[in-house]
Write a structure and sequence with these properties.
The protein has 181 residues and is α+β, with helices and mostly antiparallel strands. The protein contains 5 helices and 9 strands, in the order αββββαββααβββα.
Length: 181
């Protein structure tokens, strides 16, 4: 998932790349920072690390409006750079310790409202989940509304947690395949 995420980084960077040692000692170099620094991060003995992301999104109406009202400008290729987006990677998810979770959130309230309005932002995170073999993509608007399930077990969906199909987190997690399989 992290390699797919790196593909969405802006082509030009003003900070050095970030070297990460993952559990199992695999190494990965990412075009992001952690705690706004590029110092190497060793996750071989940790269950969690944090990233500061800047990502490129194809412009849709919500992103164009954001750009016109003080956000970053539209690039020549029709994309808009949005950052900082904060990410917490948990190698043992709080929802199910057999899974890894990547939790991303907007840095400001204005960005959160943009995330809620932009179909392309939702699509990027859903596609990241699908392309990396993730079992579930949740979208939380942060406004107290139920979380939306955008991807589940290989299929796009539009269900909600606290809805009829998933009355709670346990019901959602119960649909995930056994991570040992």
């Amino acid at each position: 998932m992290l390699a797919h995420l790196a593909e969405l980084a802006p082509p030009a960077r003003s900070v050095p790349p970030l070297e990460i040692t993952l559990p199992g000692s695999d190494r990965l170099v990412l075009p992001f920072t952690s705690h706004f620094k590029s110092d190497p991060v060793d996750c071989s003995t940790s269950n969690t690390f944090e990233l500061d992301l800047s990502l490129m999104f194809d412009a849709d109406d919500a992103l164009r409006e954001y750009a016109q009202t003080g956000g970053p400008g539209l690039e020549a290729d029709g994309r808009i750079q949005i950052g900082y987006i904060y990410a917490t990677i948990r190698f043992e998810s709080l929802m199910h310790p057999g899974y890894t979770s990547v939790e991303c959130w907007a840095a400001t309230s204005r960005m959160s409202r943009l995330f809620a309005r932009s179909a392309n932002i939702r699509k990027v995170f859903t596609d990241l989940t699908a392309d990396s073999g993730g079992v579930c993509c949740l979208f939380d608007t942060g406004d107290g509304a139920p979380e939306q399930v955008c991807w589940l077990n290989g299929e796009p969906t539009q269900e909600t947690v606290s809805g009829p199909l998933f009355p709670d987190w346990r019901a959602l997690v119960a649909t995930w395949p056994d991570p040992e399989e």
